Amino acid sequence: MANVTNLLHINVDKLFEQCGVADIDLVHKRLQSEVELKREELRTMVGERYRDLLKAADTIGDMRNTAGSIIENVDTIQAACRKLNDHQLIGFRTDHQQRKLRKTTNDTFHAVIVQIKLLTSLPEMIWSAIDGEDFFVATQLFIFSRHISTGLQLDSNAALMAKFPVAKKQWAVLSQFFFTIKQNCSSCLEREDLQPEVAAKCLASLVLLESCQLDHILSVFVQMRLKAFAGVLAEGSRHEKVRDKILASLKLLMNTVELIHTCFVGVDGLLMRELNFITGENAQPTIGLIKSEDPKIIQTLPDIISRFRPRIQLEPLSDERVGKHSKIWLQNVEKIATNQLSKLMNLVPSIKVLHDIRKLSLTVAKKPESWSSTCAELSLQESLDFYSKFYQPLINTRVRTIIKQCWLETIAQNGDDVSKLLTMNASNKQLRDVKSYVWQESSEDVPLNLKDALDCANLASHQLLMKSRAFPPPLVELVSSLDSRLESLTKDVTTFLGASTSDEAQQLIEFYSDCSSESISQLLTTIKSADYERSPENYVLLARLLVAFKELCPALKKCLTPSQLSNAETLMPWQSDELPLDAKKDRWNNAAGLLDEESLAFWRLWLEQFVKKWPVLEGNVGYHTLLTEFPLWDTVTIEENDEQNQPVQSTIRVPALPSFPLQKLLHVIATLLNSLIPQTIPKRIISQILDLIGDRLLTHYQTLAASEFIQRNQNCSLQYYFDLKFIQLLFPVYREKKQLSDALVATYRTHIDPFDFDVFHAHVNANVKRAVTRMQHFFGVLLVNGEPVLGGSAGTTTTKATGGQDRNPNILALASNSASETWFPLLPIVTKEATAAQGSAGLSQEATKVVKVADEKQKQPGGRAPPRDNQAPPKARESSREPPTPSSSSAVT
């Protein structure tokens, strides 16, 4: 085995791993020998250091034994002296004195025995009274036991008491009832439902136990009632529901006022009556409470025991002291209400629960007839109302908080719904292709009965109306979800207003309307700050969503309209619609205007990207422009007399349609707008589109006007002159820039020969009107007023031709009783005869025009007609379509 040098640093694990059993046993023996050696050293060190202390301890022990023996010897001497004294007086005693002494000794002995018997019986009696919650009787029995125990301890016959040590032990048991009774009385005074009789007995018990004055007891009682009030509001209360805690606390406050008045006010207060009943001159002795003992045995008790009753000197309680303690109690109640009651009120989850609490609180807080006099005697306000003072402000504050919380939750939920809607905008067919959804006929478009058709309360259920407004089902579902949440909140607020006073209702409705106005702004801010793809489709969807909020959320209007928060029969004066707009702040119109403005803002964002999809107008022109961008011109044959007054025929070519780039631009814009259901686009946006179109066209034609090719080519100038006149006539909004456009028209007119223009002018104007009449229906979406610019000849003829057949107006049914009935009826079949008749009527309006020149003196050299500003257009005999000649020569042949 390895030589171990330091046993204190042995590693046990390594020892068992490296050594055998014999080696380990050897190490163990060495450790034991070391321990014994150290023990001997310790004994030696202690004996040498504390030798004096040990000797002193032995001396003290000897002194104790000596003192004990001395005391025993003294007792023996006293006994011997007493015996000697008795022996010397034997001859001087009489029998009467012996009998009297013997009788006194026996009576004293029996009295002590009975008292000890009472002490042993009283604990059970006191416990029975405590279990029966008769603390006043328990207090009297305890005081009686204390009186008996004190008398026994002060008895001069120590020898007799030495024989009964149980008396001292029994008082040790009885003394604990002081704290038990006091604790139970305090617990009883902290109860919620405390009767005046019970309170008076408990207070009288405390007075007897502590031998205190009424002022101190009133202070203690006030503190206990405050503790009870705080305990009801605490989490550990026996009431689980917040409503029950609030009602119990209000009932406790009402009960406390009655208790203070009943127990402490006046000389005949209930507390004084209870004390006088046991301490007065005519009061019965306390021994009368003990019913279980034999009366003969009770007679052996001395008078000081048998006639005992509690005694206490009390000073009357003045009204000023009562009023002072009452005010202190009310101040502390206010502090507790500010802290605990407000926290408890914040736990109320809904307005419905608050309404129930208020309704039940008004019942609990109903004042008795003597309430005013009671408060006056307690130096409190005669009109003291705990509900109005502590509970009503907290309830009103909590209602406002719940309204704010509901709005915040609604805004958050709506923000999530909007994000989901924007996410599925690209995948949902109804959102992606609104045009197909709108024009797809469904059996659910028409309500099945007239009642549903005329129901304006639920517009979201009218499928055809939703299609006309371009509101797809996912969008309608989102708006309906918001409306249902606001409807539930408004319904709760309306219910809460039912039991409110006019002032409370006015303040709450004003707050609700103001909160709703602020929440709408927050709602719009949340929508605008949402994380979504900035695409034109999302902009359009958000713009329509904001409009749907205004049109499909009747609950939103209720939130902002005070007159709609109550029934018409029960309107308050402040809810009248006759008030000026300044009084109501016109919240709904402001909110509706805000929704419209934000919707227009999204439309403007869409417009910024929409303009990028327009085709680019080419500014470079040349001969290829005449071949590729100009449509066929009309060829007009005119007839006039020469110098010999002989008829001479000539032909001219005039533009009949606007140029192809202009048609393409308008066609692309109209097609893109048609895919968005153009009737749902705001007119202000359409006006902005027209302004952008006008600005782009003016810029384009100004660029063309500066081209040398255009200035040298009369045909190009004439075609662009036609385009400008077409634009001026087609778009009335464009007339707002009439001065600029007229100047541009005049510029192109200067590039045309005056004599030729005088001949072309009437024909060009006629073709412009004819082109507008034909094409205005294709570009009708760009017409702001939604009405045709001109009533064309073809349209007039058709109306006349079919006027006899369409005498009755077309009617669409509001409701259908058949699920298979279609909304739009089939179109009538048109016969060839009717078509031919209408065609001939239309052609009759386009007869050939021929121009005759009567006076050959008015002819100008070169065969050109002079200017004719006030003359009718020449009559044409033949009209045909030919392309313009790509040259700068005159168009007259």
UniProtKB/TrEMBL annotation:
Alphabetical keyword list: Golgi apparatus, Membrane, Protein transport, Transport
Pfam families, A to Z: VPS51_Exo84_N
InterPro entries: COG1
Keyword hit for Transport: yes
Gene Ontology cellular component terms for the protein in this record: Golgi membrane; Golgi transport complex
Superkingdom field: Eukaryota
Membrane topology designation: Peripheral membrane protein
Principal subcellular localization: Golgi
Biological-process GO terms, alphabetical: intra-Golgi vesicle-mediated transport; protein transport
Compartmental location: Golgi apparatus membrane
Region (Disordered): 839-893
Residues in coiled coil: none
Record family assignment: Belongs to the COG1 family.
Name of the featured protein: Conserved oligomeric Golgi complex subunit 1
